[in-house]
Write a structure and sequence with these properties.
The chain is an alpha+beta fold. The protein contains three helices and 16 strands. It has one domain: tt1808, chain A, CATH 3.90.1570. The two termini are 27 Å apart.
Length: 201
């Protein structure tokens, strides 16, 4: 099997775009300032980690409150005439109820409180940081698919700034959740609450 490589086409033929629409191959496609980015389908470990994070957040953080956690929802810049010309598709979006994001049914215009990217080798997770900061997200989480190493970036004055961990390795999120990596597992808990703690495989 050949190694994956990046490719750039100055113009995408319509039959390729139509095939991607019909086969659902393009469900994770993104457009960056008018340029199509075609992400590969997530691997099984990628999907499993995303599913575990979704389940924990819904069970422990969002339960019984006006909080939402959704998967693979497009997010766009606010106020542009055609949102399909500039959007990203994070693995998870976390909405607290006081977000800048407007629910447009097909996508969110503006930033959810938190977006979560599960990083695979050679993907564009880090390249998306300026976009997420610019659209009004409060935080970006990046969790490595293989090592489970986690990073939280807080948006400060329009820039994504990496948060330091505390003395025990915990990263504190603005939504009252803490993350750390132990023995190649992602540990997660409500802030200071060991009863809610889980180690996601």
């Amino acid at each position: 099997m050949r190694d994956a490589m990046k490719a750039v086409m100055s113009q995408i033929p319509e039959h390729i775009l139509e095939w991607r629409r019909q086969t659902d191959a393009g469900r994770r496609d993104e457009v960056w300032e008018g340029v199509l980015h075609m992400a590969p389908d997530p691997t099984i470990p990628h999907q499993e980690l995303g599913g575990e994070l979704l389940h924990w957040l819904k069970l422990h953080w969002a339960r019984g409150q006006s909080r939402r956690v959704l998967t693979e929802v497009d997010v766009s810049r606010p106020g542009i005439p055609n949102w399909t010309k500039d959007f990203r598709c994070p693995d998870l979006v976390v909405l607290t109820g006081d977000d800048r994001a407007i629910d447009r049914v097909t996508h969110f215009e503006g930033g959810p409180s938190v977006v979560i990217e599960i990083r695979s080798p050679s993907d564009e997770s880090y390249d998306k940081l300026p976009f997420y900061a610019a659209i009004g997200c409060k935080e970006i989480w990046i969790v490595d698919r293989d090592s489970r190493a986690s990073e939280i970036y807080a948006v400060d004055d329009g820039e994504a700034v990496r948060k330091p961990a505390d003395a025990d390795g915990w990263l504190a999120s603005c939504i009252g959740v803490e993350l750390r990596t132990e023995s190649r597992k992602l540990e997660i808990r409500l802030a200071g609450d060991d009863a809610s703690r889980a180690a996601l495989p």
